[in-house]
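Look over this record as teaching material.
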Amino acid sequence: MKFYHLLLFLLFMSCNTKTNNNIFVSKLGYTIVLPENWAEYEDEKNTNAFFDTTGWTGNLRITPIKTDTKKIAELFESEVKALKGRAEKFKTQNRFEGVKYSEAEKENFMYYWYLIVKDKIFICSFTINLTEKETQKNKMELIKVNKIIDSIQPE
C-alpha cells in the first residue's frame, strides 16, 4: 500500500512540474526557450525562424551576427540615433542590453529587437499581419515572443 501511495505521489509531482516549453539549441551558437507548440522552419541562411504550429500568429526570426566587441557599442548607439526616438532600450533577464522598435511595412507589422550578447548582435523580428496589430491575440503572442527573446543565451 505504501508503494502505491509513493507511486501516486511521484506521478502527481511529475504532472505538476511539466513545463510547456522546449529548449532550442541553435547551430548558430545560442539557446532559447520556445513554447511547446512552436517549431522552427527553414528560412534564410544564418537565421532561425519559428512559428506557432497550432495557428499562425506571426513569424519570429533570430539572426546572430558576430562582430568586433570594440565596435558593438558604437553600432548600437548608431542604430538608436537612426531610429530617431522610435526605439526603446531594454535589458533581458540575463542582463544583455538591447533596443526594440516597431513599424508598419506594406501589409505587415514588424517588431524588431537588437540585442547585444558578448561579441554578437542578435537581430530579432516578429512579423504579423497589419490587421492583427491591435488584437488581444497579438498582445498574447508578443508576451511569448518577448519571453523567447529574454531567454537568449550564448553557448
Summary: The chain has a mean pLDDT of 84.
